[in-house]
Amino acid sequence: MKKLLLSIGVLFTITLTAQTPCSSGNSIGFPCDNYGLQSNIPLSTFGANSSNDSWGWTDPDTGKEYAIIGLRDGSAYVDITDPVNPIYVGKLISPVLDEFRGNWHDVKVYNNYAFIVSEIDGHGMQIFDLTKLRNVTNPPVAFTDDGVYTGFGSAHNVAINTDTGFAYGVGTDTFSGGAHFVNIQDPTNPIAAGGYANDGYTHDAQVVIYNGPDTDYQGIELYIGSNENEVVFVNVSDKNNPQNINSLSYNNFQYTHQGWLTEDHRYFLVTDELDEVFNGNDLRIIVMDVTDLDNPVVHMEYFGNTPAVDHNIYVKGDKAYLSAYTAGMRVLDLSDIDNMNITEVGFFDTWPADDNTSASIGDPGAWNVYPFFESGNLVVSNFSDNGGLFVLAENNIILDTPSQATTSFSVFPNPANNKITVNSGDSSVINEIKLFDVTGKLLLEESNINADSKVLDISLLSSGMYMVSVNNQSSIRVIKH
């Protein structure tokens, strides 16, 4: 059975499978350095036209890794244990939908539960038992939540301290947009636990048990809020009496957006979302020295080699992983941060069209990167209507990890003009062939082949690079002249 899929306006739910290390600055059409593509699921798979936040969960019983992606109308869950062949497990619809305010859903994970918030009025904090993902036998499915916390209605984001079992809604419609404390130690029975409003609106936050060099505060629960024009440091150990420790601003701020501590808690890296737009500088990360929490100071500023806007940043080991909208994911080496030396050691541009800076909210490209899987899998979510969910990895991981896919199939001639032949090099039978463009759009499909070779007519395709998937296993790059 043959399908030629070139018409416009037809929805296909296709996963592009392509474990391809970065080579000569390219990974299947995406500019890159040292990081390559493992797979890419387009937004059409999720029935969505935009995505935003992303996070991850590792099943403690099975070791399986799952990516979570925020969508306009809810959140989607993808098994990436085999990063070359991800499985779209299902979708959780928002408890409240709003065409105008439902642009994003932000999510964090605690104790095998996902906690999802949105700026939709009346949304609250949706709670979802992630162990349900284990039992899906016919994906994708429509999930139902396991409760909604209604102590706040809307929230821009949620931070969770997994060491204490407290969630912190930020940018909520309570406490002047500051921190809204929720005890989630019993995840399906959340309990309001107060809040903090003294420093105004918090756009994003990180909350940790402080283990840095400042002996005055070791062991406290430290809330670090990115509060539009400054970073605030608050002792929230006593939920009934949170105490501001200090705050710190920096030169030429436009919008203090989000930040993350180094693992030794000596430095806090913060992004300013709008300084590239209004100050005209290249991508900038402000590094704060917080070795003395009573006297934090700006340690240095890092400037990238792109004008794109920085968004979210996370630290794992001695690397920082940055989502930078039109410039995609950028990876920074922090090993010499003490000497004010930060260098870019890799990137993967999920928006290859350009690296433009836009003053409009909703720049296309990478909204978020989740770097905390032990496997080294990296999840990047694109905000735009192109791209969707990317699963990436450092080149050495891709090259050192044996593919679970069959490698006995080949395509010739390659490059080709009008026709290609897909061949089996052993006794394997070809049952299904799919051909994708570099964005993951399915262009041609043949099934029920049951042969050891098959000729495909590609004469109607434009010149460029394509991916041929055989039996949903092997992925072969093909160049069309």
UniProtKB/TrEMBL annotation:
Residue span(s) of domain Secretion system C-terminal sorting: 411-475
Keywords: Signal
InterPro entries recorded: Choice_anch_B, Secre_tail
Record protein name field: Choice-of-anchor B family protein
SUPFAM superfamilies: Tricorn protease domain 2 (SSF69322)
Signal peptide residues on this chain, from the entry's feature table: 1-18
